[in-house]
Amino acid sequence: MATLAQKLPYTHPFAGGYPYRGSQRLPSDPDALTYLAAVAAADGAPVETAVAVAVDDFFKGCKADGTFSALKSAALLCGARTLAGALVPLVGAAPTNNNFVDADYNRETGLVGNGTTKYLDSGYAYAQNQDNSHIAIYRTEAGATTQNWIGAGNYNPPTRSFSRIGHYSGGIHSGMQGPLANVSQPSLPIGFAATERNDDENVSLRYNNVTQTQVVNSVSVSGIPGNFTVFVVSYSDLGIVGYSTQRAAFYSIGESLDLAALDARVTALVAAIGAAL
Fold first, then answer.
1. Are 114 and 135 in contact (CB under 8 A)?
2. Contact yes or no for 269/77 (Cβ under 8 A)
3. Total structural domains within the chain
4. DSSP type of residue 46
5. How far apart, in Å, do the first and last CA atoms of the chain sit?
């Protein structure tokens, strides 16, 4: 015979306000619950329990992988019920919205740029984490061929130090606290892309399920003003450059980490949210 808890959902005191039915799995990571509560406040209602569990799995998985502490600025740009909820940060400061509107947001696939005016300012300053950095993005729609996906820095010598991921002239252009490290890639598959540096000589780029490392010496980030931006790159000398028409569901910025491990967690998170909705 079914118990009362199995017949009638109720709010479990340790379930973050989510309806509880018998043995149904619920979010439990304290950081995930804090994030989900903030999203609910922005949205006006909690997300579905399956979406909340997917978020919980991401927090727990990143902590188990040892990558969570390296995330200093990150946002899940899908899953929430509203654009306001999607701009609640997973960690760090909330991004500043520049010109995105509700119609640009899709709960399953994230935010889409327009190639001319729309971008996010992460609030995370470029001039930090010398030789210990990463940037990452998960794109659900590739957008135009010539564009910047995420980045910041100073483009022109003698202080040419920038961190960027984008696509130009038939290849992926990435940099991490120094000049470009290019990878020939004429097509633009969707999914996870990231670059990281954990010393003053090598840069790793992960794209299309493959990590490549190149020897590219770093250049000091000291004194270079400006924040990392998403859907464009913000250079201290050139300004906002290369607006994107991509659709993105996640970004992160912070310290060096295992790119393959983060790729697996973000890819699973976006897939689980899509399945839940």
1. no
2. no
3. 1
4. P
5. 31
> Are residues 204 and 211 in contact, defined by beta-carbon separation less than 8 angstroms?
yes
Distance CA(277)–CA(273), nearest Å, equals 6
Closest CA to 231 of 114, 130, 129, 81: 114
- CA 92, distance to chain mean position in Å, is 12
- Please give the residue range of the domain that contains residue 188: 4-276
pLDDT string in tens for the chain (277-residue length): 444 344 344 444 445 566 555 567 899 999 999 999 999 999 999 999 999 999 999 999 999 999 999 999 999 999 999 999 999 999 999 999 999 999 999 999 999 999 999 999 999 999 999 999 999 999 999 988 889 999 999 999 888 899 999 988 777 888 899 887 777 676 778 999 999 999 999 999 999 999 989 898 999 999 999 999 999 999 999 999 999 999 999 999 999 999 999 999 999 999 999 999 9
* Residue reference for tokens 């780029």: 205
DSSP string for 57-97 = HHHHHHHHHT-GGGEEEEEE-SSSSSHHHHTSEEESSPPEE
DSSP state of 199: S
Give dist(CA 118, CA 111) in Å, integer: 10
CATH code for position 74: 2.60.120
The token pair at 23 is 């043995």
Please tell me the pTM assigned to this model. 0.92
CB 214 within 8 A of CB 181: yes
Residue 216 dihedral angles phi and psi, to the nearest 5°: -140, 110
| Owner of token pair 């995105």 | 100
Q: Which residue has 């935010």 as its token pair? A: 111
